[in-house]
């Protein structure tokens, strides 16, 4: 069982020296991956409901520093050599797919092929309004954007014409190191998110789950992948645990079909980062590798 670490790019963890400390410590302590989330803007007041908290509120102050994840991960890539780097998650329908395809390919190149492209359709309607993107049909927009990006990543001369994005023959270079492209991992716990992972993704990233919820999701995604003519054994399943992890819980997630657990192990105090990650390595990361 692999263990990844969430996150960099928010609050104190948006400071350059803290990103370096977290990334290098995570790599040295045996974590497989490091993740950066995305929000372009936040609000003091909003009507949208955050889906991963009981109170429906995102646990990040509106005025907290919140780095662009591609910038944060590029900075982490420059000071590491083995650690995989992922967006957890990129809000793709808010972005230009052509520009984002360029960013994904560039990050994959400068990291030496270590990028995982975590994607979500977003939950904050007010943010979509702020960036000038329609809230409705964002799931369909995401699917089409990914189809266009796959063309950009794989073809020397790319052309695409769809409902949400259209471009004539053009060249986008560099191409990603990972072929045909970095893994596309759909984030989200809804049935629709699981269906997207099964039908057009390379894997799924579930948030705040119990092992039983993870097992049900893995079964559902695998079944939907088979129904779509895809091989579910080629999908990678990641999960963040709802409760604090011990080795018994790790085993239950493994038995549920989860390949990698993403832990929230970064303390608020930068002085405690190194010792906290070393303790997690001793009690969780290293033992989990043998499970």
Number of domains: 1
Q: Which H/E pattern describes the elements? A: EHEHEEHEHHEEEHEHEHEH
Per the CATH scheme, the topology name is TIM Barrel
Low-confidence stretches: none
CATH class: Alpha Beta
> Structural class given helices, strands, pairing?
alpha/beta
Mean pLDDT: 97
CATH architecture: Alpha-Beta Barrel
Q: Globular, elongated, flat, extended or rod-shaped: what is the shape?
A: globular
Strand content: 15-25%
Largest sheet: 8 strands, parallel, barrel
Radius of gyration: 18 Å
Describe the overall structure:
This protein is of the alpha/beta class and 291 residues long. The protein has one domain (2-289): Alpha-Beta Barrel (TIM Barrel). It is 39% helix and 18% strand. Strand 2 (33-36), helix 2 and strand 3 (84-87) form a beta-alpha-beta unit. The chain starts with a strand and ends with a helix.
Please give the structural blueprint.
Layout: E1 2-6, H1 16-28, E2 33-36, H2 69-78, E3 84-87, E4 90-91, H3 97-110, E5 115-120, H4 125-131, H5 138-154, E6 158-161, E7 166-170, E8 184-187, H6 191-200, E9 203-209, H7 211-227, E10 236-241, H8 247-255, E11 260-263, H9 273-289
Parallel strand pairs: 1-2, 1-11, 2-3, 3-5, 4-5, 5-8, 8-9, 9-10, 10-11
Antiparallel strand pairs: 6-7
Helix pairs in contact: 1-2, 1-9, 2-3, 3-5, 6-7, 7-8
Question: What is this entry, summarized?
Answer:
The protein has helices spanning 16-28, 69-78, 97-110, 125-131, 138-154, 191-200, 211-227, 247-255, 273-289, and strands at residues 2-6, 33-36, 84-87, 90-91, 115-120, 158-161, 166-170, 184-187, 203-209, 236-241, 260-263. It has 291 residues and is of the alpha/beta class. The protein starts with a strand and ends with a helix.
């Amino acid at each position: 069982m692999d263990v990844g670490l969430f996150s960099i790019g928010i609050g104190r963890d948006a400071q350059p020296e803290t990103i370096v400390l977290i990334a290098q410590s995570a790599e040295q302590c045996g974590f497989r991956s490091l993740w950066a989330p995305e929000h372009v803007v936040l609000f003091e007041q909003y009507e949208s409901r955050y889906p991963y908290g009981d109170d429906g509120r995102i646990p990040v102050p509106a005025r907290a520093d919140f780095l662009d994840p591609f910038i944060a991960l590029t900075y982490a890539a420059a000071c590491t050599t083995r650690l995989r780097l992922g967006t957890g998650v990129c809000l793709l329908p808010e972005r230009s797919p052509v520009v984002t395809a360029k960013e994904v390919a560039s990050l994959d190149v400068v990291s030496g092929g270590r990028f995982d492209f975590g994607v979500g359709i977003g939950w904050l309607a007010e943010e979509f309004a702020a960036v000038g993107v329609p809230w409705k049909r964002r799931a369909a927009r995401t699917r089409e954007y990914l189809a266009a990006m796959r063309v950009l990543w794989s073809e020397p001369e790319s052309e695409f014409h769809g409902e949400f994005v259209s471009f004539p023959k053009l060249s986008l270079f560099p191409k990603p190191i990972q072929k045909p492209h970095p893994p596309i991992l759909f984030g989200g716990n809804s049935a629709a998110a699981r269906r997207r992972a099964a039908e057009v993704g390379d894997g799924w990233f579930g948030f705040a789950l119990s092992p039983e919820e993870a097992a049900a999701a893995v079964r559902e995604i695998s079944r939907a992948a088979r129904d779509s003519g895809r091989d579910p054994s080629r999908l990678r399943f990641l999960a963040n645990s709802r409760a604090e992890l011990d080795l018994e819980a790790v085993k239950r997630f493994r038995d549920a079909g989860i390949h990698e657990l993403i832990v929230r192990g970064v303390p608020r105090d930068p002085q405690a980062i190194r010792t906290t990650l070393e303790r997690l390595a001793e009690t969780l990361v290293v033992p989990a590798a043998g499970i």
